[in-house]
Automatic annotation (TrEMBL):
SUPFAM superfamilies: CYTH-like phosphatases (SSF55154). Residues 2-169 form the CYTH domain. This is CYTH domain protein. Signal peptide: none annotated.
Length: 172
């Protein structure tokens, strides 16, 4: 299973923030529309990500829901039929919820920097430092912390859980 170190922070996506992130990136950003459907799953999280171009990915992942840098283990399988797969998985497992977002993706070395506008939640920054096979998690944690400092992410901005959890907590 592949792994990375992740952080999620609530931020305001300002021109100054965009300029800081862009100055770290290796290339121009990608604008991505994502519609994530989560399914009931007893030993982690299972989501189907449908992209605006009609393609998709089935993603299984397992990680702690604490604040700050944390290791995430994941498997990804591409699909050309995300709507059909959503129907199949919904019938088989039941839906746990749905998250719609507009993501701006910057690549900085081995780190994916996401500026996310999440429907019903607001604006966030995510960092995903991709770990090499057998690489200790601490190396990725240190890299994530250094990037957080360069971007200006404060500890009080860090959030725990997935967007799905934050959406569920925001509903009365």
């Amino acid at each position: 299973m592949a792994s990375n170190i992740e952080i999620k922070a609530r931020i305001d996506i300002t021109p100054a923030l965009i300029a800081r992130v862009a100055s770290m990136a290796d290339e121009d950003p990608l604008e991505i529309t994502q519609d994530d459907t989560f399914f009931n799953c007893a030993n982690g999280r299972l989501k189907l990500r449908a992209f605006g171009d009609g393609s998709g990915q089935l993603i299984f992942y397992r990680r702690s829901d604490r604040q700050g840098p944390k290791e995430s283990y994941y498997l990804i399988s591409a699909t050309a039929e995300p709507e059909l797969l959503r129907a199949v998985l919904s019938e088989a497992h039941g839906q746990a919820g749905r998250v719609e977002k507009q993501r701006t993706l910057y690549l900085a070395g081995r780190t994916r920097i996401h500026l996310d506008r999440v429907k019903g939640l607001g604006e966030f920054l995510e960092l995903e430092v991709v770990l090499g096979a057998g690489e200790p998690a601490q190396a990725g944690v240190e890299e994530a912390q250094a990037l957080m400092a360069r971007i200006g992410v404060q500890p009080g901005q860090l959030v725990e859980g997935a967007y799905l959890d934050l959406l569920a907590a925001s509903r009365p």
